[in-house]
Amino acid sequence: MLETKNAQQQDSDPSLRYSDDQVAWLKKARAFADSIPIEDVIKSDVENSFRRDLFERACQEGMGALPFPTTYGGTGGDYVSFALVNEEFARRCVPIMSSLGVHVLCQEPVFRFGTEEQKKKYLVPSATGKYLAAFGLTEPNAGSDTAALETTAKLDSKGKNYILNGTKTFITSGGSADYYIVMAKVTGDAHKPFPSPREEGGKVDTITAFIVERGFPGFSIGQKFDMLGMRGYSTCELVFNDCKVPVEATLGDPGAGRKVALSSLAKGRVTIAAQATGWAQGALDGLIKVLRDEKSKGMFDESLNGLASVVGDLVTQVESARVLTYQAAGAVDNGDTDVTVASMAKTTATDAAMKVSTEAISVISSLGLQPELLLERIFRDSKAGQIYEGTNQIQRMLIARTLLR
Questions:
Q1: Can you give the pLDDT at residue 35?
Q2: How many Cβ atoms from other residues are within 10 Å of residue 272's Cβ?
Q3: Dihedral angle at the C-alpha atoms of 198, 204, 209, 212, nearest 10 degrees?
Q4: What is the pLDDT of residues 101-139, one digit of tens each?
Q5: What DSSP character marks residue 153?
Q6: What range defines the domain where residue 78 resides?
Q7: Would strands 207-213 and 236-246 be described as parallel, antiparallel, or unpaired?
Q8: How far apart are CA 213 and CA 205, in angstroms?
Q9: Residue pLDDT, tens place only, 257-271
Q10: Long-range contacts at 396-401 (CB < 8 A, ≥ 24 apart)
Q11: Treating both helix axes as pointing N-terminal to C-terminal, what angle do 257-296 and 340-364 enclose, rounded to 10 degrees?
């Protein structure tokens, strides 16, 4: 007999695995995800359209600033709870999943490195959904390597504004965001007094983080990408053409931009791992639904034993990704700054999502291409998951480097 449990059945007693607060967030996220008609999910993907209304609704339910204290409008939850939200949203391909993850990722550096004025100005409206945030790191010639950044920032003659020039690319929520966390290299003499860390070879690190608002002069939205996967998130280019950014919009110490970026990206990898675990579970659910439906019609009877072996392997991969993901999320909550487990979780979970969705479509053939099953959507999104927030190849290098250090 070929059997597995779907997402609703799998955590039939989640109290054995999570705390009462975490279970409450899991149930809230599941109810939110299941309340969205599948037609809306498909439409957002087909039209590549962002659902700002769903984003604001999720924020109003406390998910827009879940891991942050109530002092700044947050919910005071932990990162395990936020991972549970992301897993449930990914399982149903909720149209705001990636934007919500990036939105929280952007609040992290403001919370950790921002001034009190910056925290009040950006965190409180971010928590309610009034503001949507995006992260401006990736460039046409710089992805996982921050040292390759080409966007520049130069202090003007009056010392009141930085002038930014350059382009960021593949920015999630870029076309819809209200403010952006942007990394740029400071040029000119302004870097000399920086109380900044030094790179190997004694070179002064001039990468600096800025909070750039949508209305700043010289800022504009470039091309919007019509991509294979991860559609519906307003992914686009950001263009800085003598963009005027007030000095007080500098985030953290000048020259500490690499530290600001890495502080967010480490948690971002855990978020991606949770999303990928949800994708893998969603693909498994879609496969089982078809197999059960076809079995009831007398199909697959002669091949059930072989299929049982395949499905058993996929179930194991999903659960392995889940265990490693929540180990990484728990490490975040415990204050563990080692990012190795986060890299392991991101790599394992995204690879599992790619494997499960690929095998699911292979097993049930053309039946797996029905949009309402979400299999082909998850297949496309999973490939993107292996690439962004640091490619899986880079993650493996980081893991090995830690062991060989």
A1: 97
A2: 29
A3: 180
A4: 999 999 999 999 999 999 999 999 999 999 999 999 999
A5: E
A6: 7-132
A7: unpaired
A8: 25
A9: 999 988 887 799 999
A10: 396/343, 396/347, 398/339, 398/340, 398/343, 399/340, 399/343, 399/344, 399/347
A11: 30
Q: In this structure, are strands 152-155 and 179-186 parallel, antiparallel, or unpaired?
A: parallel
Choose, from 108, 237, 359, 389, the residue flagged as catalytic: 389
Q: Angle formed by the axes of helices 304-333 and 257-296, to 10°?
A: 150
Helix (H, G, I), strand (E, B) or coil at 251: strand
Note if 389 is an active site residue: yes
Rounded CA separation 123/120 (Å): 6
User: d(Cα 286, Cα 376) in Å, to the nearest integer?
Assistant: 10
The whole-angstrom separation of Cα 390 and Cα 140 is 15
Last residue of a domain, one of 132, 154, 183: 132
Tell me which residue of 38, 133, 20 sits closest to 91, measured CA to CA: 38
Say what angle helices 97-113 and 79-91 make with each other, to 10 degrees.
160
Q: Is residue 230 within 8 Å of 270, Cβ to Cβ?
A: no
Task: Write down the mean pLDDT value for the chain.
Answer: 90
Is residue 247 located within the same domain as residue 265? no
CATH of the domain at 189: 2.40.110.10
Residue 235 DSSP symbol: -
Asked if residue 2 belongs to a domain, the reply is no
Backbone angle region of 335, left / alpha / beta, with phi > 0 → left and psi within -120 to 50 → alpha: left
pLDDT for 11 beyond 60: no
Lowest mean pLDDT among 67-81, 199-213, 275-289: 199-213
Alpha carbon 126 to its chain centroid, in Å, reads: 16
Angle between helices 257-296 and 79-91 (to 10 degrees): 40
Q: For residue range 346-405, what is the model confidence (pLDDT) as tens digits?
A: 999 999 999 999 999 999 999 999 999 999 999 999 999 999 988 999 999 999 998 898
Per-residue burial over 105-131, b if 16 or more Cβ lie within 10 Å, else e, is bbbbbbbebbeeebbebbbbbbbebeb
> Rounded to two decimals, what is the model's pTM?
0.91
Q: How many domains does the chain have?
A: 3
